[in-house]
């Protein structure tokens, strides 16, 4: 048996199609979804798809113009979208917007998507830098969930925490973020236990590389042309639309027995050698964030 090596994807595969939408139209009509980090990238894609499926969607983020752009995209689908400007690291702001958004509507789906980090070696991360990333990717998730619980409990709602593919193993340059995401995974499993009797489900959805408009152009092309082909067994990035479709599926009754799970949507990247094994990745001072 030869050693395993990555092969470029064959041409003509069934998955070489534009964004695929498999869920029944209006499947989420009558539901209310709250999405953090709604003004760009994955969060924006999730908002648009949920609204297209009939959910009333509330988006949260810090930048009004970005949230306004999501509102415009949702409007094209005849969907229902409201947004609140808030920093998820600010507990008082979180409590205020979650309760204002959900007092009447209740909450059927909460997507904790706001997140991010900078790439840095562990010995280059200051205490403040570590805490800042953990605050965004772990502490804020707890605050949002804590406030949302009373509304999720009304009808039995679903929590989806957006994570990172490979969260169960290490990755060079991501000490702070992986520490936070591992904490979120443990939190997710624990809440799946504690709140199962309320009908509240909790799962993590962990995308592999998603090349969205938010990434700087040089990073995006390096990921697409070199890093992904060299590290993702499927040889391709994860489309935002695929993440949105999975999130929507988990929110439907068909997902009612799925809870406490980590769903990695990454073309087997988590089983591969890891992005950090590719030369010149993570990006250093020349190309990094
Ligand atoms: C399958 C795996 C895929 C992997 C790819 C993953 C991709 C993504 O996650 S895409 C998401 C895209 N967006 C982002 O990642 C967001 C980019 N980052 C940020 O927005 C910010 O860095 C932040 C939110 C994570 C932190 O912001 P903030 O709290 O405002 O932090 P400050 O600027 O005030 O800095 C605090 C502290 O952190 C130090 N620091 C910041 N950048 C770096 C750096 N590159 N290297 C080292 N240290 C850094 C900064 O210096 C401050 O510390 P002190 O110097 O001690 O004050
Ligand atoms: N892109 C990728 O390859 C991957 C991304 N992920 C994860 O998916 C999630 C979304 O990433 P992606 O769409 O790529 O990145 P973006 O940077 O486009 O999205 C992050 C969003 O979160 C918002 N946000 C950031 N900080 C805060 C805050 N303190 N309060 C409220 N909102 C905040 C940002 O808006 P604003 O700054 O206006 O507040 C932004 O809209 C993140 O958790 C990311 O780590 C996971 C795997 C791979």
Automatic annotation (TrEMBL):
Interacts with PEX5, probably required to target it into peroxisomes. Its main location: other. It is found in: Peroxisome. Participates in chain elongation of fatty acids. Catalyzes the reduction of trans-2-enoyl-CoAs of varying chain lengths from 6:1 to 16:1, having maximum activity with 10:1 CoA. Has no 2,4-dienoyl-CoA reductase activity. It catalyses: (2E)-dodecenoyl-CoA + NADPH + H(+) = dodecanoyl-CoA + NADP(+); a (2E)-enoyl-CoA + NADPH + H(+) = a 2,3-saturated acyl-CoA + NADP(+); (2E)-decenoyl-CoA + NADPH + H(+) = decanoyl-CoA + NADP(+); (2E)-octenoyl-CoA + NADPH + H(+) = octanoyl-CoA + NADP(+). It is an enzyme of class 1 (oxidoreductase). Transmembrane segments: none annotated. InterPro entries: NAD(P)-bd_dom_sf (IPR036291), Peroxisomal_t2-enoyl-CoA_red (IPR052388), SDR_fam (IPR002347). Pfam families: adh_short_C2. Pathway: Lipid metabolism. Keywords: Fatty acid biosynthesis, Fatty acid metabolism, Lipid biosynthesis, Lipid metabolism, NADP, Oxidoreductase, Peroxisome, Phosphoprotein. This is Peroxisomal trans-2-enoyl-CoA reductase. Its EC number is 1.3.1.38.
């Amino acid at each position: 048996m030869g050693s395993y090596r990555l092969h470029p994807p064959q041409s003509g595969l069934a998955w070489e199609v534009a964004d695929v939408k498999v869920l029944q139209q209006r499947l989420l009509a009558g539901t209310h979804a709250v999405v953090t980090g709604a003004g760009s990238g994955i969060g924006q894609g999730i908002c648009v798809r949920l609204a297209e499926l009939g959910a009333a969607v509330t988006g949260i983020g810090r930048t009004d113009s970005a949230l306004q752009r999501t509102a415009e995209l949702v409007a094209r689908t005849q969907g229902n979208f409201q947004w609140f400007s808030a920093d998820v690291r600010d507990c008082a702001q979180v409590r205020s917007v979650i309760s204002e958004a959900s007092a009447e509507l209740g909450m059927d789906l909460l997507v904790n998507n706001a997140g991010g980090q900078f790439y840095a070696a562990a010995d280059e991360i200051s205490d403040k830098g570590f805490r800042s990333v953990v605050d965004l990717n772990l502490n804020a998730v707890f605050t949002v969930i804590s406030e949302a619980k009373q509304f999720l409990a009304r009808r039995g709602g679903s929590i989806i925490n957006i994570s990172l593919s490979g969260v169960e193993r290490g990755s060079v340059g991501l000490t702070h973020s992986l520490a936070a995401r591992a904490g979120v995974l443990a939190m997710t499993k624990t809440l799946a236990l504690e709140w199962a009797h309320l009908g509240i489900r909790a799962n993590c959805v962990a995308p592999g590389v998603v090349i969205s408009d938010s990434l700087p152009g040089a990073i995006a092309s390096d990921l697409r042309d070199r890093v992904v082909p060299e590290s993702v067994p499927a040889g391709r990035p994860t489309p935002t639309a695929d993440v949105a479709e999975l999130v929507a599926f988990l929110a439907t009754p068909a997902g009612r027995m799925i809870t406490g799970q980590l769903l990695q949507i990454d073309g087997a990247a988590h089983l591969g050698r890891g992005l950090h094994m590719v030369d010149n990745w993570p990006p250093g001072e020349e190309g990094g964030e």
